[in-house]
Write a structure and sequence with these properties.
By secondary structure, the protein is of the alpha/beta class. The protein has a single domain (7-184), classed as 3-Layer(aba) Sandwich (Rossmann fold), CATH 3.40.50.2300. It has 6 helices and 8 strands. Helix 1 (12-26) runs parallel beside helix 2 (43-57) and helix 3 (74-87) packs across helix 4 (99-111).
Length: 185
């Protein structure tokens, strides 16, 4: 009754940063990129986008030519990406703030005949995205390590019940799952 617990989760800003940095490196530090945003104003999406902007800013030859919401949805991402590719046929990379949008972007890239020419990244580490990374359809996905988040939350709950100190905020470090890392999945 009345117990106050802490926040255990992933640092979305850092996850977005790692996702975008991996994309920028894979592009050799240059090229036009697009960002598929989550729902405007929703914190996790804004944090991931903020991390991406920070990473891309570290590469003067990376240019963001489009940044648009696809509301976390595969079908919207397919349509948004199709429009972005039509308007910007020289895009080299697409940063998607979640895997559902990345999967839609992959379909749009394939439909445009640009498979292997446009790198797509995602976030969440869902099974289909990891499979796409293994197949080379996606450059990376970010694993938020949900089982680790739950284990730490339970550990903190037990400490709290036993009146032990716990941090107010605990961030689990996300993992970039690229082709090399995907062998562990």
């Amino acid at each position: 009754a009345g117990l106050k617990f802490n926040y255990v989760g992933v640092d979305n800003f850092n996850g977005g940063y790692l996702e975008a940095k991996n994309l920028a490196e894979a592009l050799g530090g240059k090229g036009n990129v697009a960002i598929l945003e989550g729902i405007p104003g929703v914190d996790n999406g804004e944090q991931r986008k903020g991390g991406a902007l920070k990473a891309f800013a570290e590469y003067p030859d990376i240019k963001i030519v489009a940044s648009q919401s696809a509301n976390w949805e595969t079908e919207q991402a397919l349509n948004v990406t199709t429009n972005i590719l039509t308007a910007n046929p020289n895009i080299k990379g697409i940063f998607a703030a979640n895997d559902n949008m990345a999967i839609g972007a992959v379909t749009a890239v394939e439909n445009a005949g640009l498979a292997g020419k446009v790198l797509v990244t995602g976030y969440d580490g869902i099974p289909l995205a990891i499979e796409y990374v293994k197949q080379g359809k996606m450059q990376n996905t970010i694993d938020q390590l949900p089982k680790k988040q739950v284990a730490i939350a339970i550990e903190h709950a037990l400490k709290k019940i036993n009146k032990q100190e716990i941090p107010e905020v605990y961030y689990v470090e996300p993992v970039v799952v690229d082709k090399e890392q995907s062998k562990n999945y």
